[in-house]
């Protein structure tokens, strides 16, 4: 039974029987309506003369409600039962705090909930609530908030990142085989005060961490791999004061919004880009609707159609043991639901909740549409009893997920064209079949030069560049727009003819923000006809690999592609210093794990070559 509910039902007496008419309470009532006798209004109960007991009781009830503070007048939250819970944290008191979800790349049922124990550890749990790992630091016991981003590109490498506040910003990677986290900071933690934390994967291809000190000071860092050793560091790119105590935050990678809960004021939306300054808009404010202080965790439900929800935890409700959550439309910020996580058959409710997280997607048989996780202050029966823990709820029980989305179409090759010439300028025409949202890869291998290269124009972003002696290769990417079909793409030098090969490849179903997530290149260390592409990590299923080879030689021209590859472009060139290029892909997604290491054989040996493995994400 929901706490505070009348067990006899609305308008029913102790016996459970009810009558029509005056026994039923109106849906809405004014005090002046109750204190009305005939056509005259009265100012007190005594003036009302003979008043029915029902009218007197109703008057008392209305006066009580009118005099209540906003926190007590908030809408009654809809109860949603918990489905499961994690093992309790190892320390007592206010310990469990902020969760995040890491999705296993090949087996969603093996995904993890990663959370902090403020009094001693970074912990991970499986989807049955069993503890998988506990990372401690005997010298400094405080651990702050946690966030996860998967499939982000840092230093040209696609990877998953777990971030937590501990002595500053600490970064970890999860091994899908062992399910264990390993620290990947370059040296010590990225220095900053903080407790609140969230990550942002920008459409610019940069990855940021936002840290919020309990005083409300916000600092934003760009996460980088400066020396290419796989260890990550951070550079401060923005800081400002929220205004007062704050902690919870979440970034929307698609819309570029950063949501911050200023605990006793409002849920704010900022620009997540470091150039956004401190300008903000209130999603909702304390006392205006169902929000009361203090506000804590914030999370985002990202639906595949671009819709979704922003959810905030209202921790200090009038009855703290009945704390609740408010959900807003992701795009309009209209309030859509107020709910609380109640007692389930296997686990109890979430009380005085601090951190929350949500993820839409297949997480296996128990959570086929996603998962909502909330911290529980009072860990009671049923289930474990004692120290704080986290509660699990199927996401479809919390918010409306709409109709099941159609299965993803996946990535497909649209077209590739190539031109090989000894010239001042090279151009390709974007195919007429290109559609808005397609990913376009422009690759240019040429005789090395110190002259300035002009092109390819606005909208193109350089992915990578590599030189091997007198041969250099550059790749650019662009997300197609409605104006691109049939348009020319041109590169040129101011003077001096040189050999060059320009190829344009188009793929459909790629990630909308950064279609080509990484491009790993290698130069040829010796003289050989067999050129091998680098090996890269594939973080999740559905990714495609494009392989690219270029060499410069003066002998026979031509290429033998690796077996099983679809040849998208092959150009041999002619004359002395000719440049040959080969572009292939497998014609289908590559499995999670590693890919690359493919060998293409040129018709003659050369010590000037660049070989590439380029990763496309859906």
TrEMBL record:
UniProt feature, compositional bias: Gly residues: 10-19
Residue ranges occupied by any BPP domain in the UniProt entry: 70-402
Region (Disordered): 1-23, 79-99
Coiled-coil ranges from the UniProt annotation: none
Annotated Pfam families: Phytase (PF02333)
Molecular function in Gene Ontology: inositol hexakisphosphate 3-phosphatase activity
Domain of life: Bacteria
Protein name: Phytase
Organism: Nocardioides albidus
């Amino acid at each position: 039974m929901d706490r505070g509910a009348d067990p006899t039902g609305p308008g029913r007496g102790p016996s459970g029987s009810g009558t029509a008419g005056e026994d039923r309470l109106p849906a809405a009532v004014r005090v002046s309506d109750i204190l009305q006798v005939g056509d005259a209004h009265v100012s007190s109960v005594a003036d009302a003369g003979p008043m029915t007991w029902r009218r007197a009781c109703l008057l008392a009830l209305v006066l009580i409600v009118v005099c209540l503070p906003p926190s007590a007048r908030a809408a009654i939250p809809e109860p949603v039962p918990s489905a499961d819970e994690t093992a309790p944290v190892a320390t007592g008191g206010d310990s469990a705090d902020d969760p995040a979800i890491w999705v296993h790349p090949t087996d969603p049922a093996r995904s993890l909930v990663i959370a902090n124990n403020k009094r001693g550890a970074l912990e991970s749990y499986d989807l049955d609530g069993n503890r998988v790992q506990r990372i401690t630091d005997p010298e400094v016991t405080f651990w702050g908030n946690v966030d996860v981003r998967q499939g982000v590109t840092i230093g040209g490498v696609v990877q998953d990142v777990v971030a937590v506040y501990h002595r500053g910003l600490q970064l970890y990677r999860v091994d899908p085989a062992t399910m264990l986290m390993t620290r990947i900071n370059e040296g010590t933690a990225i220095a900053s005060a903080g407790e609140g934390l969230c990550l942002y994967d920008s459409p610019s291809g940069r990855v940021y961490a936002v840290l919020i000190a309990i005083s409300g000071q916000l600092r934003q860092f760009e996460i980088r791999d400066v020396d290419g050793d796989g260890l990550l560091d951070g550079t401060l790119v923005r800081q400002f004061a929220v205004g007062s105590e704050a902690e919870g935050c979440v970034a929307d990678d698609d819309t570029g919004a950063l949501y911050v809960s200023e605990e006793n004021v409002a849920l704010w939306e900022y620009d997540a880009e470091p150039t956004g300054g401190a300008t903000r808009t209130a999603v909702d404010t304390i006392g205006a609707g169902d929000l009361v202080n203090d506000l804590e965790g914030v999370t985002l439900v990202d639906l595949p159609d671009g819709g979704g929800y922003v959810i905030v935890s209202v921790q200090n409700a009038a009855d703290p043991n009945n704390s609740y959550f408010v959900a807003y439309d992701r795009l309009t910020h209209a309030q859509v639901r107020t709910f609380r996580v109640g007692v389930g058959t296997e686990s109890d409710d979430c009380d005085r909740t601090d951190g929350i997280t949500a993820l839409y997607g297949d997480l296996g048989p128990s959570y086929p549409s996603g998962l909502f996780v909330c911290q529980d202050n009072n860990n009671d029966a049923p289930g474990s009893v004692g120290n704080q823990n986290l509660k699990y709820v199927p996401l479809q029980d919390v918010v409306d997920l709409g109709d099941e989305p159609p299965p993803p179409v996946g990535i497909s090759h649209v077209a590739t064209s190539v031109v090989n010439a000894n010239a001042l300028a090279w151009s390709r025409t974007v195919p007429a079949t290109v559609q808005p949202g397609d990913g376009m890869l422009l690759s240019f291998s040429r005789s090395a030069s110190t002259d300035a290269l002009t092109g390819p124009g606005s909208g193109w972003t350089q992915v990578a560049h590599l030189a091997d002696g007198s041969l250099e290769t550059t790749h650019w990417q662009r997300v197609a727009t409605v104006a691109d079909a049939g348009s020319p793409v041109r590169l040129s030098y101011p003077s001096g003819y040189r050999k060059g090969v320009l190829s344009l490849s188009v793929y459909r179903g790629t990630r909308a923000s950064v279609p080509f997530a990484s491009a790993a290149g290698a130069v040829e260390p010796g003289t050989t006809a067999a050129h091998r592409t680098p090996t890269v990590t594939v973080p999740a299923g559905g990714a495609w690999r494009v392989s690219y080879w270029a060499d410069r030689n003066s002998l026979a021209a031509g290429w033998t592609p690796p077996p099983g590859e679809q040849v998208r472009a092959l150009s041999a060139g002619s004359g002395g210093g000719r440049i040959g290029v080969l572009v292939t892909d497998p014609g289908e997604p590559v499995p999670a794990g590693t890919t690359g290491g493919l060998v293409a054989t040129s018709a003659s040996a050369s010590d000037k070559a660049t070989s590439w493995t380029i990763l496309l994400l859906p």
